[in-house]
Write a structure and sequence with these properties.
The protein contains 8 helices and 15 strands. It is α/β, with parallel strands linked by helices. It folds into 2 domains: about 160 residues, Transposase IS200-like (Alpha-Beta Plaits, 2-Layer Sandwich); about 140 residues, Rossmann fold, CATH 3.40.50.450. The protein has a 7-stranded mixed β-sheet, with helices on both faces. The protein has a 4-stranded antiparallel β-sheet with strand order 6-7-3-8, sandwiched between helices. Strands 1-2 form a two-stranded antiparallel ribbon. Strand 6 and strand 7 form a beta hairpin. The longest helix is centred in the middle third of the chain and has 21 residues. The chain is elongated, with a radius of gyration of 24 Å. The relative contact order is 0.12.
């Protein structure tokens, strides 16, 4: 999910949409657009076929002549529709994403947005009609999501930047997103059926792995201290393995993702399907071969808690250094990596 809806815009279906005079579906009728707004927009080619280019390894977007024309026209149209600002965009082979900013106190901001969208769709369609492609280029409707925080804006920009990588990873069976079942490794308990996606070389015998299990009870004020321990282990050449479930573990995942060269093993039971769909900041980690997803495919223990504890035991089994971090009687107990 690239944006968070305001509380009064969470209703499902058409109840959250009202049609403006310009024909734009105003999804977030509880939001005052005169305050300013950042929107993530998606347009699909009609029909949705790769007519604007293709993706080359490793995730490089290559526009054909039509794609280059549409990309240039998008920037040109945005420049003509000030004060609306085009913050980021990508013209994919069969769709387009863009994030636009409507500054505060614009008169009729949704009308201005509708004018911008209409100009984009009409001008690019006419451009390709002059090159021999009949009919409209884009589907009549488009998707718009309101970004209501800096985090959601950053998420939208990351999604746009790494969309070619994501498309490449999902394009063929031999790409890192494919799940191999079972996954064989001398480091994994032989009686358990594992699946994996990503860089399976992280499990090679010469790899050093530190398994981190971090309690939910650790106060937030101590998260940075715990994360620093894991980053020291990473700097010493250890891949960091965890379920990344607790708040501190999630903070650790963010820190490792932002650390060049840090290798990550993210584990769960029944986490992977036939083909794994990337989440959050995972696409760049796959492209850099820094991430391995592990899924414990055999039946987990009866209770959810017992299942995760059992999984943590297995992560400790495959690691060179098991690091357990808990909070007990106002003190941290851990093994410093």
């Amino acid at each position: 999910m690239l944006a968070f809806l305001p509380p009064d815009a969470r209703a499902s279906g058409n109840s959250r949409r009202t049609l403006t005079q310009k024909g734009h579906f105003r999804r977030f009728h509880g939001y005052d657009y005169s305050r300013g707004a950042s929107l993530f927009l998606t347009f699909n080619v009609q029909p949705k076929e790769d007519i604007l280019g293709h993706i080359e390894a490793p995730g490089v977007l290559v526009h054909n002549e039509w794609g280059k024309l549409v990309d240039a026209k998008t920037t040109e149209i945005a420049a003509r529709h000030a004060p609306i600002r085009l913050m980021s965009h990508v013209i994919m082979p069969n769709h387009a994403h863009m994030r636009v900013y409507l500054p505060p106190w614009m008169p009729k901001p949704l009308v201005a947005l509708g004018d911008f969208v209409s100009a984009f769709k009409r001008s690019t369609s006419l451009l390709l009609q002059h090159r021999g492609r009949p009919g409209p280029l884009w589907e009549e409707r488009y998707h718009d999501f309101l970004c209501v925080s800096a985090e959601s804006m950053d998420a939208s920009d990351r999604y746009i930047a790494y969309n070619p990588v994501k498309r490449w990873l999902l394009a063929a069976p031999d790409r890192p997103m494919r799940v191999f079942e079972p996954l064989y490794s001398g480091r994994l308990p032989p009686e358990i059926w594992w699946a994996g996606a990503g860089n399976t070389d992280i499990l090679s015998p010469e790899s050093k792995i530190a398994s981190f299990r971090i309690s939910r009870s650790i106060p937030e004020a101590l998260h940075e201290t715990v994360v620093a321990c894991a980053l020291r282990a990473s700097a010493q050449g250890y891949a960091i393995a965890s379920t990344f479930i607790s708040p501190c573990e999630r903070r650790l995942f963010q820190a490792l993702s932002a650390t060049p060269g840090a290798r990550i093993i993210k584990a769960g039971h029944k986490m992977l399907g036939a083909v794994y769909r990337p989440q959050g900041g995972e696409p760049p980690l796959f492209a850099e071969r820094r991430l391995l997803l592990l899924s414990r495919q055999s039946e987990p223990a009866k209770s959810r808690r017992a299942g995760w504890l059992d999984l943590n035991d297995n992560l400790a089994y495959l690691s060179d250094r098991a690091v357990y971090v808990r909070f007990d009687n106002d003190r941290l107990h851990w093994l410093d990596a």
